Each structure stands twice: as structure tokens, then as C-alpha cells.
Amino acid sequence: MNSNSTEPVLRVSNLTKAYGDRTVLSDVSFSLAAGERVGLMGTSGSGKSTLLNCLGGIDKPDSGSIEITGNFIQEKTADELCKIRRETVSTIFQFFHLLPTLSARENIELPLELIGIHIDERNERVQNLLEEIQLTHRADATPDELSGGEMQRVAIARALAPRPKLILADEPTGNLDSKTGESILDLLEALSQKHDTAMLLVTHSKAATRICSRTLKIHDGALETSN
Fold first, then answer.
1. How confident is the model at residue 1 (pLDDT cuts 50, 70, 90)?
2. Pairwise CA distance, residues 93 & 83, whole Å
């Protein structure tokens, strides 16, 4: 699936953020097109987490702008940001963050309930996603009954359920063994391509960026482009 739009899904312009006298982000600018996968690498303390928090609307930059599908998120109210996070931007976490009392199916369905999708469409989307992540046989299992790889597959399906334009993947293989991590990367590549979803993949692993068209490196809050 290819988007005909030439407008980027995400455009970050001259983003700056400081805590006291410590500059954490310094004049950061980049963009992501629909369906594009971009890696973001940097050591601990380089500014990756602050950048993700700004992109997700959790933190506010001191200056510069973040535009997601035409919305300047730093100008939005708390309710408007919540709507964007539920419908337009999804996050995949290193430690899965599945709700322990819900089954795999229910975890995937939850974001669809929150945005008011009709039950018939919810059921169809969830079933299709379970098939795509190859976990239909584990649909009724709770997280404590799933392996780490299975939990991350459910988390990926949950992120894709609302059909977001942008996924923020925060060290999605960081809590998995290398073989399982490779399969998760393959799944992210296949599903982001199929659903035409832009993805920013934050990772410490150079090998993980193999699914990305380009890699950004952040050092002391400043961004540079590399391969």
C-alpha cells in the first residue's frame, strides 16, 4: 500500500528543550513520510527519551514545532492531545505495557473501545490483527501466559488497531533474546509496510535499523543524519 500524499506524516522543526541550564534537545529537525521507517540511535542521556516524550505530547518543547498529520501538537489542549494519541500516534514499548487482567484479544481491542469503534468492526479488526501476528491460537491467553515475543506481538497489534499514521517504537526488541527480536523486527517491517504506517524506531542496536530506510543519530541533544 502506498500513500499518494506528499505531505510528511511527521515534521519536526527546530525543536529545543532544556531542563534548567541543561540543554536536552538542540535545534532538532527531521520528517517522516507515510510508510517510512526511520531509526533513531543514541546513547543513554543523548535526548532520545525527551524527544519521544515531546513527539507523544507528554512533554512540551521550549521552542520549535511538531506537526503530525497537519496538527501542531504543542498548540493542542490536553483533550486534543489525548485524541491524537488514541487515534493518530501509537507507541510500542520495550516492556510491552499490556494490561495483565485482559486477554490478548481484549488488549488489542481496548484502544478501539476508547475511540468508539462499533463492536462489529472491533471484532473484525482484532481478528485480522491476530491473524497477522499469528496468534489466533493465543487470543484468550493473558499476558502472564504469553512469552516475551508473544507479548510484544500483541503490543504491536494493539498499536496498529486504531490505524495510526505514526508509530513510536521505543526499544521494541530491547527486552527480547536476539532470535525473538529478529522476528519482531520482521513483523514491524511487514506490518508498517502493509498498513502504510510511518515509524520512528528508537534503538541502541545498529542491527535493528536494518528495517529502516535511514538512521538518525542524536548526540548531546543534537541530531545528525547517517546510514
1. very low
2. 19
